[in-house]
Amino acid sequence: MLNSRMLNSMLNGRRAIALPVLCLLLLGITGCTLPRVNAEERLFLPLAVDFLGEYRLPPQEFEGAPVGGLSGLTYDRQRDRLYALSDDRSNFGPARLYTLHLTLDQSDPANPRIGSVEVESVTPLLDEDGQPFAAGTVDPEAIALTPRQTVYIASEGIPSQNIPPFIDEFDLETGRRKSRLKLPERYLPAADASPRGVQENLGFESLTPDPSALGTAGYLEPFRLFAATESSLLQDLDAGPPGELPPLRLLHYLIGEDQATLLAEHLYYRDALPPEQGEPGLTELLAIDAGGQFLSLERAFTPQTGVTAQLFQMVMGNATDTSGMPQLQGDLSSIQPVRKRRLLNLGDLGIRLDNLEAMTLGPRLPDGSATLLLVSDDNFNPLQVTQFLLFRLR
Predict the structure, then answer these.
(1) Distance CA 103, CA 101 (A)
(2) Domains in the chain with CATH codes
(3) Nearest residue to 166 via CA among 134, 135, 140
(4) Does residue 4 sit in helix, strand or coil?
(5) What's the angle, vertex CA 114, arms to CA 108 and CA 119, rounded to 5?
(6) Could you give the count of Cα atoms lying within 13 Å of 313 in the half-sphere of its Cβ?
(7) Tens digit of pLDDT for each residue in 359-383?
(8) In the predicted model, is pLDDT for residue 355 greater than 90?
(9) Is 20 helix (H, G, I), strand (E, B) or coil?
(10) What is the DSSP string of 243-295?
(11) Nearest to 122 by CA among 93, 156, 79, 152
(12) What's the whole-number average pLDDT of the chain?
């Protein structure tokens, strides 16, 4: 085996050696072809995920409402608690988020798993007047923890009733709305009913903060927040290359103490599936570092094949800013989308998948590695389950 000192000596000419011989020593083969890594591959972190197990939350009620519809999930490392957002439109109970305590079973250190998930409390969401949202006026789907003891919550809106989507900030303790992000007009229903804005039940499903600020309580410096729609905007449905699904859009905000600025917008292409598996939607984004590295979750469903889900790595890289384009038309080949590559087909896990919609980094394992948690939305359907999937991210 060559150590670094021997190799440096050879390369600096202090020990004469012919190039073919050096190739043999380095590669142990008869050729001199070094492995090639293209520029695209160098953009991605060398990640892998290990499946550690499934946990199903028992059906239950808490303070008079069923625990279900979990469509957003975020982890508070300072408190060691999960905040789970229900997508109840205030029909079964008030629009709300739950505080959950997840306990890891580490009786077998080599194979940790979820021991239990306990519902500790529920926080109703309130408008700026301190009133609960009326039934059918909100569709909460995504949640992101901030470093200032608040959460941002995204609602898909209900375009058929001219109820626009929103991304609003709520106090974590009281549930009261504190502020609202300004959404570009292209995401909102048009006053003249022309095709514009998010599609029905396909609006904002993904919300994630830059994780670099979350480790410091009371952090007041600006931080970044990312949001994405589940599918394409109405005015973009005919855009994109033939044979591919039309792109959806990803928003990039800078959040300050007193204001928020939209920095950029980028295009995201979903991976098309065989027709019998349905059309996938982007159900979650998760920023995993401050350098523009993400995980994305795409999920599809048909009654024939059930749920299909895939996990991707995603990088912003040199993605084109499309924030000045109210509508996508024609040839988009000059627009660089965010880059992604598949990390895991969850169909390979050998378990029945439910309606996976939420994802977060969770508590660390005893060996120091990070955990990744996915959770399903049971749609308040007794034939479905609230399914937690635990992974080691390495």
Answers:
(1) 7
(2) 1-35 (no CATH), 38-393 (2.115.10)
(3) 140
(4) helix
(5) 145
(6) 19
(7) 999 999 988 999 999 999 999 999 9
(8) yes
(9) helix
(10) TSPPPEEEEEEEE-SS-EEEEEEEEE-PPP--GGG---EEEEEEE-STTSEEE
(11) 93
(12) 89
